[in-house]
Amino acid sequence: MTDSSTFLADFIRGVAATAPWGDGRAFIDTDTVTYSSPFPADFVFGVAAAAPQIEGAAFADGKGESIWDRFCRQPGKVHDGDTLDVACDHYHRFDADFALMASLGVKNYRLSLAWPRIYPSGDGELNQAGLDFYRRLFASMKRHGITPWVTLFHWDLPQALEDRGGWTSRVTVDAFARYADTVVKAFAGDVKHWITMNEIRCFTQLAYGAGTKAPGRRESQAVVNQTFHHALLCHGHGVRAVREFGGAGAVVGLTDNLDVCIPVTETPADIAAAKAWFLEKNAHVLGAMHAGHYPADYLARAGADAPRVERGDFDLISLPTDHLGLNIYTGTYVRDGRNGAAWEAVPLPANYPKADSPWLHIAPQCIYWATRLAAECYGHRSLYITENGCGYNDEPVVNGEVPDLHRRDFLRNHLREAHRAIADGVPLHGYFLWSFIDNYEWEDGYQRRFGIVHCDYATQVRTPKLSARYYADVVRGRCIV
Ligand code: BGP
């Protein structure tokens, strides 16, 4: 005789044995009868953060001023005038932070190096103390069994370079090439996974066009287009540096915050519309990298504002990469266009669900469609979600815990879409949650909390939130729980 729970467990085991990975692994809890088929054995689960947002020590041991150190001191630019001076004090507490990360079972950490810690004025004298800091940090990660995934540039441009034109100038490209050579050579023994740039659109369009991010300039579209051309060149130098100096087994790619869309219905007509929208909106970064030139339809739209390209630029920009990182938070709904248009974007109604970040509308299918379209449109064979997460204000510690069920739901729903993408054959190989710990969220300062670990900025006490425990269970079981 079999009672119903034994029957269910047997049934689940049968399903697990026929899962795409075929090895019968599955998370089965016969008490609660929870089940989902596992992620592939080599799927990377990680967490992410970035140097300027957590390190603090903004002027310690010879570090130079970054554009964010300057911007945050300008009245009205950052919420409450918050500075990066102390942040999570990770500069002094990294060892304990890695112990905490390891205790959650997280073995992969995406971090960035602070360019102004290494070249305080961008391209002048090298600051040995900066390199020494990261050497100690990588040694600590190794002791705790955590693999580094290192981003070369996550927005903290040395202010001295901004004073010479910043991203509008090729001086920055040359300086970046030297910085990339230096750090890849220095850490080739410690780091095998490299990411060149984080979110080109944010530190060009938003920083030099909208002026909401440092350095807060409002330039013409032609100038903005030139800034992202220079950023693409730096990406190319990052790839070149890793190929030249990264040593055996080193891999490299870009992290892009591509424009993401979701077909309103998953029917051929709406999917075709989504694809057309995707190709148009991503033409100037991903499209250009993959085509080896700016696509004709982009050039037609840009007209006289198109970037000035010099001979050899695209040899660098289109160097082959090993993977593509995608920062995916939200998406635009698209459907088949009326009156013969290729697509139509559907505006979100006022009461559509969102996090406290006003731009962060909650649309979990963004994960599925961003990864699927990136693979289909550009032929990528190795994709990583290098950021995904949600920001909320006021997440107090209650009886030793932050009961952030909203983040747990966000995480679970987005992971399900990652799982669906893999099941449909999308080459998605990893997921990095933004963020390990509450941190300096740029112009939102410390008000917005994205961490799965709570940071009390007054005492620097860390408290894992409910979502951290949840993610630890996912990582441990390698499946959605
Ligand atoms: C991404 C950045 C991260 C992080 C995250 C949260 O764009 O790469 O550094 O900040 O967004 O967004 P925000 O701080 O803009 O709310």
Give an account of the 3D structure:
The protein has an eight-stranded parallel beta barrel, surrounded by five helices. A three-stranded mixed β-sheet has the order 6-8-9. Strands 12-13 form a two-stranded antiparallel sheet. Helix 8 runs parallel beside helix 10, helix 9 (200-210) packs antiparallel against helix 10 (221-245) and helix 15 (365-378) runs parallel beside helix 16. The chain has helices at 4-17, 51-54, 67-71, 90-103, 115-118, 128-143, 159-162, 170-187, 200-210, 221-245, 268-281, 283-291, 296-302, 313-317, 365-378, 405-423, 466-477; strands at residues 44-48, 108-112, 147-153, 193-198, 251-256, 261-263, 323-327, 332-335, 344-346, 383-387, 428-434, 453-456, 461-464. The two termini are 29 Å apart. The chain has two domains: 1-34, no CATH class; 43-477, Glycosidases (TIM Barrel, Alpha-Beta Barrel), CATH 3.20.20.80. With 481 residues, it is α/β, with parallel strands linked by helices. Strand 10, helix 16 (405-423) and strand 11 form a beta-alpha-beta unit. The structure holds 6-O-phosphono-beta-D-galactopyranose. Residues 50, 53, 198-199, 202, 257, 327, 357, 387, 391, 434, 441-442, 444, 448, 450 line the site of 6-O-phosphono-beta-D-galactopyranose. One of its GO terms (cellular component) is cytosol. Belongs to the glycosyl hydrolase 1 family. Substrate binds at residues 53, 154, 198, 329, 434, 441-442. Keywords: Carbohydrate metabolism, Cellulose degradation, Glycosidase, Hydrolase, Polysaccharide degradation. Its EC number is 3.2.1.21.
